[in-house]
């Protein structure tokens, strides 16, 4: 960025410039004299300044004023192979730094000896060491009144902590180690103070899965228990809340973090294990979550809270790779809509949802379009993306109208990146704090115009980075050149008419950031999962049990926290889709084996099973014949019936069929939603149609044969009996009437007449015709096969 820091040495007015030049000359005179007294030290400094490592662990106060005593503490370690003797640590003050680039140079080369530096403060304001053995670290602490440093005009000074001593190879004093830092000097209130907005990001990685328990409370399931570690005392998120509660900051919060912690605090959450198992979260961690939420509620009371869309969606990935996939932007709108509700429910404050924050504040036209598509009209950019092109000698205010009613709120890159990197070592953290304060003061001295500056640090600071941020902000808020302001107020401040408002082209987007984006295939999978969810939800009687957890999981699939973790992102999306498939498969058709139909019509049952805990409905079961000319379902090619099943139950749906011909017919059962969309997998089975089965025909044929044989036997027996009776009675008995007692032809004793089919006779006799040739029925039990019950 073409900032003032890189162009100017200008100040607010000619009078102030003359005053500063005079102060610099006065301050530089004794230092120059000191350098001239040590002509031999210059070459030796450059040669041996890395023999001893100097670490500056603390500098207090970070921004001293008149009357203060500056205390510098740290350690010196002999990294060479020879013992150092006659060593001492002293302080040296250089000339004021006049540009922001000069401040960067000191910070980037903090362990390198400069070409020339000021004289040591000397006297009692140093610490001596008789000897430093190789590999041995020694602590030092030097306290010096500020007035002994001979600081001149207001500004930023280089402060060197240097160790000088002798080695066996060079038995004279020489510079053996140095640590350069920065000392902001503004003893009285500045004529004009910079309005500084410091964003305090409260975000975390994705922790919750899409799975929930089957009970009424829908116990949430977490992928791991790492969130509890962050919330515990000393953890990253615990530090962010504890440090932020006393600072004038704008809280920037991901609602997903609040939802996740709230799920831990109010219910019995579970943690995924191997092989699809899960274990209960500990009561201790549940208590930690409750305590953290209570602390956060107190910390944000009365402060500005900005809510990002749920799960902090990656706006750049969405703009570059997601907009070509149908439905992707709707997820951003959904994430924005739920953000305010989540924050208000958990923290009891009403947040602002007017801001969008692309990763690293990098923007291009497509990102701006996507960022504002869900209702946000202010986009947090960064000065290394929205670079100045007008050659301004100062850093302009943050707010920039970029057209279409949208405001780009441009954070200062130098201030925003001051706390990146490993700050676990005290020396690195101290340098980061001093660098931040120096840049802030130098920015304020650029012009008499009051400006609004935004600091947007990394999204998820570590605990050590948060501590350094808090230390710097505490010093800044207690200083004399800055005043705090909320982000909303900064975005509404009058913009600088000379500041750039041109959004950089897509080709200017950093390649390093583009490589970390979610690919198009990720958004295609998200769209596929959403389509499955839409198809599943319509059959549910309580959609919220499924739509809510899966809707939030889909939001999490688009999170910016997946950058640099593509493998984990792929795994998460796959797990969400697989779990949805598993739930949808709980409502299904039961496989059916071959069905045999004996006769022209029959009823076929098809079973639908619901293993969900809630009832399902709005389903239609269709049974379709693949050969309707041979087998019809309900009188046509297919028949449909509505389906409603209670949770944990099955239902058999019966279809009437009619067959026109014998043979095997394939039948397909398929569930549909009421709007005609297929649901689940079809079930196919064969129906074997036989009008009369061979077994039945065999039985019938055998029965008919027995009847014929029995009838024939009875007929012959009666004929024989009648013949014998005629022989015994003689001719005189032939005229007896049929009504006489004992007449074998009496109607009350006659067997029913046999049909033609039973007797095999072809005569035209009717059932009512007399049968004079039929013998009387015997009262004795008939033998086997003689009597047929009807």
Keywords:
single chain; 790 residues; alpha/beta; 5-stranded parallel sheet; 5-stranded mixed sheet; 20 helices; 33% helix; disordered N terminus; disordered C terminus; DUF6049; transmembrane helix
Short synopsis of the structure:
With 790 residues, the chain is of the alpha/beta class. The protein contains 20 helices and 29 strands. The longest helix has 36 residues, at 694-729.
Explain how this protein is built.
The chain is an alpha/beta fold and about 800 residues long. It is built from 20 helices and 29 strands. The strands form seven sheets. Strands 8, 11, 14, 19 and 20 form a five-stranded parallel beta sheet that branches. About 40% of the residues are buried. The N terminus and C terminus are likely disordered.
Please give the count of helices. Answer: 20
Helix coverage percent of residues? Answer: 25-40%
Q: What is the structural class?
A: alpha/beta
- In angstroms, what separates the terminal alpha carbons? 109 Å
How many strand units? 29
Taking all residues together, what is the mean pLDDT? 85
Shape: elongated
Largest sheet: 5 strands, parallel
Quaternary structure type: single chain
Uncertain runs: 1-47, 732-790
Task: Return Rg in Å.
Answer: 47 Å
Q: Give the amount of beta strand, in percent.
A: 25-35%
Pfam family, one: DUF6049
InterPro entries: DUF6049, Ig-like_fold, TAT_signal, TonB_box_CS
Biased composition (Polar residues): 68-78, 498-509
Organism: Streptomyces rameus
Please write out the topology.
Blueprint: H1 14-36, H2 41-48, E1 52-60, E2 69-78, E3 84-97, H3 100-108, E4 126-132, E5 137-145, E6 155-167, E7 170-185, E8 194-202, E9 208-212, E10 220-222, H4 226-231, H5 236-244, E11 250-253, H6 255-266, E12 270-272, E13 278-280, H7 283-300, E14 304-307, H8 315-322, H9 328-347, E15 355-356, H10 365-371, E16 378-382, E17 399-403, E18 406-411, H11 413-416, H12 426-444, E19 452-455, H13 463-477, E20 482-484, H14 487-492, H15 511-514, H16 520-537, H17 544-557, H18 566-584, E21 587-589, E22 595-598, E23 601-610, E24 616-625, E25 631-633, E26 638-645, E27 649-659, E28 663-673, E29 678-690, H19 694-729, H20 756-759
Parallel strand pairs: 8-11, 8-19, 8-20, 10-12, 11-14, 15-16, 16-18, 22-29
Antiparallel strand pairs: 1-2, 2-5, 3-4, 3-6, 6-7, 9-10, 12-13, 17-18, 21-23, 23-27, 24-26, 24-28, 25-27, 28-29
Helix pairs in contact: 3-12, 5-7, 5-13, 6-7, 6-9, 8-10, 12-13, 16-17, 16-18, 17-18
């Amino acid at each position: 960025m073409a900032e003032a820091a890189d162009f100017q040495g200008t100040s607010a007015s000619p009078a102030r410039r003359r005053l500063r030049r005079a102060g610099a000359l006065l301050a530089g005179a004794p230092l120059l004299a000191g350098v001239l007294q040590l002509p031999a030290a210059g070459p030796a400094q450059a040669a041996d300044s890395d023999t001893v490592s100097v670490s500056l662990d603390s500098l207090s106060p970070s921004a001293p004023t008149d009357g203060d005593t500056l205390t510098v503490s740290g350690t010196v370690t002999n990294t060479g192979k020879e013992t150092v003797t006659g060593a001492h640590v002293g302080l040296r003050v250089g000339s004021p730094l006049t540009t922001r680039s000069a401040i960067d140079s000191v910070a980037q080369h903090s362990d390198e000896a400069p070409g020339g530096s000021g004289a040591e403060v000397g006297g009692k304001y140093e610490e001596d060491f008789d000897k430093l053995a190789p590999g041995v670290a020694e602590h030092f602490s030097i306290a010096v009144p500020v007035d002994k440093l001979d600081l001149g005009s207001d500004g930023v000074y280089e402060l060197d902590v240097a160790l000088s001593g002798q080695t066996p190879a060079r038995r004279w004093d020489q510079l053996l180690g140095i640590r350069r830092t920065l000392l902001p000097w503004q003893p009285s209130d500045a004529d004009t103070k910079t309005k500084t907005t410091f964003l305090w990001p409260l975000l975390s990685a994705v922790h919750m899965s899409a799975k929930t328990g089957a009970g009424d409370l829908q116990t949430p399931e977490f992928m791991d228990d790492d969130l509890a570690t962050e919330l515990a005392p000393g953890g990253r998120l615990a530090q962010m809340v504890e440090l932020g509660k006393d600072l004038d900051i704008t809280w920037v919060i991901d609602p997903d973090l609040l939802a996740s912690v709230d799920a831990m605090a109010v219910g019995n959450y579970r943690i995924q294990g191997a092989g699809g198992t899960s274990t209960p979260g500990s009561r201790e961690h549940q208590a930690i979550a409750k305590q953290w939420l209570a602390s956060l509620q107190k910390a944000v009371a009365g402060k500005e809270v900005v809510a990002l869309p749920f799960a902090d969606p990656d706006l750049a990935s969405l703009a570059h790779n997601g907009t070509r996939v149908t439905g992707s932007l709707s997820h951003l709108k959904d994430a924005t809509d739920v953000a305010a509700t989540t924050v208000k429910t958990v923290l009891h404050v009403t947040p602002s949802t007017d801001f969008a924050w692309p990763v690293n504040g990098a923007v291009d036209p497509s990102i701006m379009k996507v960022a504002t598509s869900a209702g946000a009209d202010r986009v947090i950019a960064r000065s290394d993306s929205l670079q100045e092109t007008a050659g301004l000698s100062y850093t302009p205010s943050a707010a920039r109208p970029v057209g279409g009613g949208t405001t780009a709120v441009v954070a200062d890159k130098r201030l925003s990146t001051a706390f990146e990197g490993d700050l676990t070592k005290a020396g690195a953290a101290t340098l980061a704090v001093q660098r931040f304060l120096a840049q802030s003061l130098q920015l304020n001295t650029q012009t008499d115009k009051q400006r609004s500056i935004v600091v947007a640090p990394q999204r998820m600071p570590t605990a050590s980075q948060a501590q350094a941020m808090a230390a710097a902000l505490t010093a800044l808020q207690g200083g004399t050149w800055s005043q705090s302001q909320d982000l909303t107020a900064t975005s509404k401040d009058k913009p600088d008419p000379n500041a750039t408002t041109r959004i950089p082209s897509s080709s200017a987007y950093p390649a390093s950031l583009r490589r970390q984006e979610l690919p198009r295939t990720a958004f295609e999978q998200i769209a596929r999962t959403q389509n499955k969810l839409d198809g599943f939800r319509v059959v549910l009687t309580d959609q919220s049990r499924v739509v809510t957890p899966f809707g939030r999981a889909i939001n999490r699939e688009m999170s910016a926290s997946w950058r640099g973790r593509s493998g984990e992102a792929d795994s998460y999306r796959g797990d969400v889709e697989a779990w949805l498939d598993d739930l949808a498969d709980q409502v299904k058709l039961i496989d059916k084996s071959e069905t045999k139909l004996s006769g022209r019509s029959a009823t076929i049952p098809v079973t639908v099973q619901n293993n969900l805990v809630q009832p399902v409905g709005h389903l239609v079961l269709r049974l379709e014949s693949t050969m309707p000319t041979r087998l019809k379902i309900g009188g046509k090619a297919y028949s449909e019936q509505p389906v409603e099943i209670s949770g944990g139950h099955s239902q058999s749906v019966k279809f009437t069929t009619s067959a026109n011909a014998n043979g095997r017919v394939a039948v397909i059962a398929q569930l549909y939603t009421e709007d005609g969309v297929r649901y689940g997998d079809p079930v196919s089975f064969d129906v074997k149609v036989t009008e009369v089965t061979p077994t039945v025909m065999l039985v019938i044929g055998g029965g008919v044969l027995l009847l014929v044989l029995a009838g024939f036997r009875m007929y012959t027996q009666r004929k024989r009996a009648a013949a014998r009776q005629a022989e015994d009675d003689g001719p005189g008995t032939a005229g007896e009437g049929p009504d006489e007692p004992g007449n074998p032809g009496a109607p009350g004793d006659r067997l029913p007449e046999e049909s033609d089919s039973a007797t095999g006779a072809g005569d035209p006799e009717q059932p009512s015709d007399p049968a004079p040739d039929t013998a009387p029925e015997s009262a004795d039990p008939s033998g086997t096969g003689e009597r047929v019950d009807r």
